[in-house]
Design a protein that fits this description.
Blueprint (H helix, E strand, L loop, with lengths): L2 E4 L5 E5 L5 H13 L4 E2 L8 H11 L5 H18 L5 E6 L5 H9 L8 E7 L2 H14 L4 E6 L15 E5 L9 H14 L5 E7 L4 H7 L6 H17 L8 E8 L4 E8 L3 E5 L4 E5 L4 E8 L3 H10 L3 E7 L5 E7 L1
Parallel strand pairs: 2-6, 3-13, 4-5, 4-7, 5-6, 7-8
Antiparallel strand pairs: 1-2, 8-15, 9-10, 10-13, 11-12, 14-15
Helix pairs in contact: 2-8, 3-4
């Protein structure tokens, strides 16, 4: 049963499906990740309050082209996307800051968000509360239902009684392996009804120096973002990771067409995670894989959607073909 936190009760609320499960999920994922041959941490644990703040900083960095391009594409396409929307639910999987969703709200037929219920789905309750408060102030007619949940398994909890435009910005789908991404798309397709649409951002293959610079900014913000996940584990599981003994490393894996982000042990060490009764040994140079970011082509993404039972209706991109928004339907 979801817990409910009002934000405020007259115009919105948050349903929390993770209040009792978050720590258990984290414990299970870290146990699996720290005992694997290639140690790994799921990237969803980046986004505590500090991690969310750091990611907002990343989005403003000169090297990080994705947000600027996606916003530019959306500015040009939002009128066409919202032309037939009218009233309904505007769903956002994994929302960050609100400029992208604001463009869609402002392009709707009715002013002030009238007729729209915004439904963000995110693992971070604090991030949802911050985003919803800002939107409620800006759009006096807007209704909000925030869902604190894991969109990899909680898509079925999103209400289905109204027409929906489901959005998945930032090429977040690229943070999942091909098999996991296929399962997410299949779950979206299963939750969609006739007339629903799915708008998804895709980071496209481009020159490797551009890709690698986006994850190795000169200011070191991405490095701080990467290391912050260790602080999350320390806080939640009483671990004793020392972020200062790990280095940020990000590179493009040509064979898999993906950026990989790692934390590299600068020396041999033992890390203890008392909540798991787990000592973890690191050799010097050993890495923890913290994120992948797969890159797409138009042709490959079409096959990707088709396998999930979805079809691309419209494709919006920038002049260089570096990023795209695909509008898909059943």
């Amino acid at each position: 049963m979801a817990s409910r936190l009002s934000i405020p009760p007259a115009r919105g609320e948050i349903w929390n499906y993770l209040a009792s499960a978050y720590r258990d999920d984290l414990a299970s994922d870290i146990l699996a990740g720290m005992t694997a041959e290639q140690k790994h941490i799921p990237s969803k644990y980046f986004y505590d309050r500090r991690g969310s703040q750091l990611f907002e900083e990343i989005c403003r960095l000169p090297e990080y082209y994705q947000t600027r391009l996606e916003l530019s594409i959306l500015r040009g396409a939002c009128g066409a996307i919202m032309e037939s929307f009218g009233e309904g639910d505007l769903v956002e999987l994994g929302p960050g800051a609100d400029p992208k969703i604001s463009l869609l709200i402002e392009a709707a037929a009715e002013p002030g968000g009238r007729g729209i219920r915004y439904i963000p789905v995110d693992v971070s309750e604090s991030a949802l509360a911050t985003a919803t408060e800002s939107l409620l102030r800006r759009y006096p007619q807007l209704q909000i239902l925030g869902i604190v949940g894991d969109f990899t398994r909680d898509i079925g909890r999103i209400p289905r009684e109204r027409k929906r435009l489901i959005t998945f910005f930032g090429s977040t789908i690229g943070n999942f392996t091909a098999s996991a991404a296929n399962r997410i798309l299949a779950s979206v397709a299963a939750a969609m009804r006739e007339g629903d649409r799915f708008l998804i951002g895709l980071d496209l293959v481009k020159p490797i120096p551009v890709l690698e610079a986006a994850y190795n900014d000169a200011a070191g913000v991405t490095a701080a973002f990467n290391k912050n996940v260790l602080a999350v584990i320390n806080r939640e599981l009483d671990a004793d990771f020392d972020p200062g003994r790990f280095e940020h490393h990000a590179f493009f894996n040509k064979n898999l067409e993906q950026i990989e982000m790692h934390l590299v042990a600068s020396e041999a060490m033992m890390v203890r995670i008392p909540a798991l009764s787990l000592p973890v040994e690191f050799e010097q140079g050993e890495t923890i894989l913290t994120e992948i970011s797969r890159k797409f082509t138009r042709e490959g993404s079409g096959r990707f959607f088709e396998a999930a039972g979805l079809a691309v209706e419209r494709w919006f991109s920038d002049p260089k073909g570096w990023f795209a928004l695909a509008e898909v339907s059943l």
